[in-house]
């Protein structure tokens, strides 16, 4: 099947197309997807600008109903959407369905937010004057997303944009356009006026960059790697007019295991955080920081647990770990395995390429031990099923090591000590802290985001999402 860009409510072919293949079985072509040109970005922006006045002025009830209808459809079709997602991205069927459900929940949450919009009437410090503080849409918002959460991340950016009356030009990742296409189609059919939501597929350097440069876009919300995000931020500031920008980027998330931890809780959280979704999560626990009293027991239990995991075709319901997303990411993972060995770390388990019935990008989850925090495998985001165990003496050293990173997205701790849990919650330099829970896996109704190189700009999700998708107006009225 062929999928076109969607501009102004119509199919737009762009310039040629690319095949999208299933990483669990590279013989399986999911479809061909149109490649947008910079001219298509111009058309998408023109369509969004034309639709903006009517959408800005739409009533909250209309926005609510459309988002609600889209949510209902996503939830009703969760199995089909989850399967499509697992097929194109390689996360397991259960994770794919879970992500589709997440997208439906996010749409429902922001349907509610559309109705909860409020302003403030504030007494002036001057007599006879009233001050009104209200929020207005930003305008046309450009949304650029990565491949690893191909329906949830688009949903958590598009839904608040629409709830607060913005028009959208959306560019999904090249590796996972199908889920994005399905989401846009559902939202448009739920009743969005033509041009309010436009989809342009294709290469980041071309299509994404054209959006960053485009004077008809007021703001860019981006999720992806630090290098890309940095370039986008610079482009947004250099553009005329300057654009508002929000970036969610990489992580090198620490998960601390203290001597007093419940071993099963620690191992489950570490395995989940490090290896589920094939380790391809910005919140993955890629650094396991373990105090010396529990270190050997923890490593032994991790090896047993990893050895028992079923790695295979994402669409097989028995599979617990799917393939790596593509050949390039697999090569990156293998390069880091070589770097780790070269740096003197011990590959305690895994790291081999696996053969399965179908040709795919299968990699055995890998656990390094004897890792120092200054090694590249402890400092750079690998974005694969590779975790590094760092041995430390005590809690104080664990906290220092946890915070000794350029990133600051999520940080976790396994402990039965209230004192250490509380101290860690207060002192971990991360946007999200998890106690006796995996570093990955978050709720949909509260803020999401990080510190340091992991995030830039206002938070996503929850009520704080409005900070990015609205601008504040302060009006002074003489009575
Ligand atoms: P990426 O940076 O390569 O690409 C992300 C998006 O940006 C894609 O749509 C891509 O086409 C586009 N892009 C690339 N170059 C561009 C340019 N010059 N101008 C505009 N757009 C451009 O990232 P990826 O490989 O798709 O995703 C993996 C990364 O995403 C990891 O670093 C991961 O940690 C991060 N991520 C972060 C979060 C978070 O919320 N913090 C969530 C998921 C993924």
What can you tell me about this protein's structure?
The protein has 479 residues and is α/β, with parallel strands linked by helices. It has two domains: 2-249 and 454-478, Aldehyde Dehydrogenase, Chain A, domain 1, CATH 3.40.605; 254-435, 3-Layer(aba) Sandwich (Aldehyde Dehydrogenase, Chain A, domain 2). It has 15 helices and 23 strands. A seven-stranded mixed sheet has the order 15-18-19-14-13-20-21, with helices on both faces. The chain has a six-stranded mixed sheet with strand order 10-9-8-11-12-22, with helices on both faces. Strand 8 (140-144), helix 5 and strand 9 (167-171) form a beta-alpha-beta unit. It is globular, with a radius of gyration of 23 Å. It starts with a strand and ends with a strand. The mean pLDDT is 98.
Question: What key phrases describe this protein's structure?
Answer:
479 residues, 7-stranded mixed sheet, globular, binds nicotinamide-adenine-dinucleotide, Aldehyde Dehydrogenase, Chain A, domain 1, alpha/beta, 6-stranded mixed sheet, Aldehyde Dehydrogenase, Chain A, domain 2, 15 helices
Annotate the secondary structure layout.
Blueprint: E1 2-3, E2 5-7, E3 10-12, E4 17-22, E5 25-34, H1 38-56, H2 60-76, H3 78-89, H4 93-115, E6 120-123, E7 129-137, E8 140-144, H5 152-163, E9 167-171, H6 177-189, E10 197-199, H7 204-213, E11 219-223, H8 226-238, E12 244-248, E13 254-257, H9 263-275, E14 287-291, H10 292-307, H11 327-342, E15 346-349, E16 353-354, E17 362-363, E18 366-369, H12 376-379, E19 386-392, H13 395-403, E20 410-414, H14 418-427, E21 432-435, E22 455-456, H15 466-469, E23 470-478
Parallel strand pairs: 1-5, 8-9, 8-11, 9-10, 11-12, 13-14, 13-20, 14-19, 18-19, 20-21
Antiparallel strand pairs: 2-3, 4-5, 6-7, 7-23, 12-22, 15-18, 16-17
Helix pairs in contact: 2-4, 2-6, 3-4, 3-6, 4-5, 9-10
Bound molecules: nicotinamide-adenine-dinucleotide.
The site of nicotinamide-adenine-dinucleotide (NAD) has 29 residues, from helix 7 and helix 8.
